[in-house]
Design goal:
about 550 residues; 23 helices; globular
Length: about 550
């Protein structure tokens, strides 16, 4: 067990090193310029958050999956959908899009309502993911410092102090400039460095398990993996969609890409990175189940508990710093992306309509930065409240799945914006709204419902097949699979319906326009005086 001072000092030194790297990248923009495609590809590993360190081990312990299914989905996108990724980058650069809400709204007629809706869905989905980071750091700190005090009262919750510290770091790190159209080279360079560090930390943990532990022989027998309806296929699909629905991943992969050709390097380097960082996950889960599971240690904490149980305090500290930097990088980039979306698509339209700030001449960059920093603080505190009130006992793997599934509602809108923008903002907005409502009903409502809400368990009006956990008779599906599939189907169905009705109306108008002028004149003569008809069709012959 390590002392508080040693852990805090090590954490501050590492975070200070990341901040110094960001400053170096900003002040020397040509640094690593010849190899920036590799820096960019490594920065994409902001995708590997503290959920990779802790939650995927729980996932492997439950299912026996050696590679997280979300990783498989992401790898498949980078290997087989290069054209989509490069087209996203090209569109974002052409329109100077600073967020996913910007890109979707600009491509679909610059709809402010659609941008606000995308922002709302992004907030709904990313707050649980930020809560996961806070909970992971607080749990790991509790394990490292005071093993018997993993759960603290609200006023002593270490997650609150972690939240405040991360909010401060995100303000200093991500909200240092008002102009968002310039690439943040320092941020990308720092993310690449922390990605390299957490890979080394995870591989060091794997080396400890592979070469430094003797496990019982029966640990070679793996649990039977769950079938597709239990989660594998669903999680794989969510991993594929996460490439362009996670706000921080979109920011790192699309907004911060300086050259679409850099995606070609990321096509092989980023999947290779995910394969390498996933190698120790299943061995850690098996070793933890064999040595720590009988002692009641949560599987989320195997990554720290295993080196501590073997007397490797330095390795445990390294693992903690890896998880801390993974969580911090995600929070920094995600809150930066959310602050841009909330400021541009919620606050700015309200100010325009209310007339706020019209009489404020001069440079507004300071006000913009203050606004972003306040938004960052509010979002992080909201995530802390979520972690306290709603998910006090949930495993980290479950929280991550909730976040990914909520954000999947944005995916059809992104694809329409890239390939079929003529379908219009109304169709995309309707689909996104309907899909999100179905997700709320099938996934979030059962999680929040109390025992007194009998209609949630038995269905509205006693119709069991309408109950969230029995919707349309899909009782054998997991709650996550049911929510994701039904919400996406509802999303696409509503989108197609509105688009089809629009085109049907346009086709009817076009058909009417194709009717000859002579026929319309003859028809009009039956009901109108001749002089009225002549006046009506006076200029139509041309």
């Amino acid at each position: 067990m390590l002392s508080d001072i040693s852990v805090l000092v090590a954490s501050l030194i590492w975070l200070g090193l990341l901040f110094g790297t960001a400053l170096l990248g900003d002040r020397r923009p040509k640094i690593f310029a010849r190899h920036w495609s590799f820096v960019y590809a490594m920065s994409l590993a902001v995708y590997c958050t503290s959920w990779t360190f802790y939650g995927t081990v729980t996932q492997a312990s439950r299912s026996g999956w050696w590679l997280p299914p979300t990783f498989i989905g992401t790898i498949l996108v980078y290997v087989f959908a290069l054209g989509l990724l490069m087209r996203l980058v090209a569109i974002a650069r052409a329109h100077n899009s600073s967020s996913i809400a910007d890109l979707v709204a600009i491509r679909l007629g610059r709809s402010t309502a659609l941008a606000a809706l995308v922002t709302a869905v992004a907030v709904l989905g990313i707050v649980p993911y930020i809560a996961l980071q806070l909970k992971a750091v607080a749990m790991s700190y509790g394990m490292l410092i005071r093993r018997q005090e993993l759960v603290a009262p609200a006023w002593q919750d270490s997650a609150l102090w972690v939240a405040l510290a991360m909010a401060l770091f995100a303000m200093l790190f991500g909200a240092r400039r008002a102009n968002v159209n310039e690439h943040n080279r320092g941020l990308v360079l720092a993310m690449a460095l922390e990605s390299l560090f957490k890979l080394v930390a995870m591989l060091a943990l794997g080396a400890m398990v592979w070469f430094g532990l003797e496990l019982p022989a029966d640990t070679a027998t793996l649990p039977r993996p769950a079938d597709g309806s239990s989660g594998f296929t669903t999680l794989m699909m969510l991993g594929a969609l996460a490439v362009f629905t996670l706000p921080h991943q979109f920011h790192a992969g699309v907004v911060e890409c300086r050259d679409p050709q850099h995606v070609r390097t990321a096509r092989w380097l980023f999947p290779l990175y995910m394969l390498l960082i996933a190698l120790p996950i299943l061995p850690l889960a098996r070793a933890g189940d064999a040595l720590l599971g009988p002692l009641g240690v949560p599987s989320d904490l195997y990554v720290l508990a295993l080196p501590l149980s073997q007397g490797h305090g330095a390795l445990a500290l390294m693992a903690f710093l890896g998880g801390l930097s993974a969580a911090t990088s995600m929070v920094v980039v995600a809150t930066l992306a959310l602050s841009l979306m909330i400021g541009n698509h919620w606050i700015a339209p309200l100010r325009v309509r209310a007339g706020w700030g019209r009489a404020m001449p001069g440079d507004l960059r300071g006000e913009v930065l203050v606004q972003r920093r306040v938004i960052i603080l509010v979002v992080v505190l909201l995530a802390w409240a979520y972690s306290r009130v709603l998910v006090a006992s949930d495993a980290l793997a479950d929280i991550g799945a909730v976040s990914f599934s909520a954000l999947s509602a944005i995916a059809p809108g992104v694809l329409v914006a890239v390939y079929r923008p003529q379908l219009g903002a109304r169709a995309v907005s309707t689909g996104m709204l309907v899909g999100t409502l179905v997700w709320l009903y099938t996934l979030l409502l059962p999680a929040l419902a109390s025992d007194s809400w009998e209609w949630v368990a038995n269905g509205p009006l006693g119709l069991t097949w309408l109950a969230p956990d029995h919707l349309f008779g899909l009782d054998e599906w997991s709650r996550l699979a049911r929510a994701v599939v039904l919400s996406l189907l509802a999303n696409v169905a509503a989108l197609v319906t509105i688009a089809f009705s629009r085109y049907s109306h346009a086709a009817a108008e076009a058909h009417l326009g194709s009717v000859g002028i002579a026929e319309l004149r003859a028809l009009s003569l039956r009901f109108l005086p001749g002089e009225r008809v002549q006046a009506l069709f006076a200029g139509s012959e041309a």
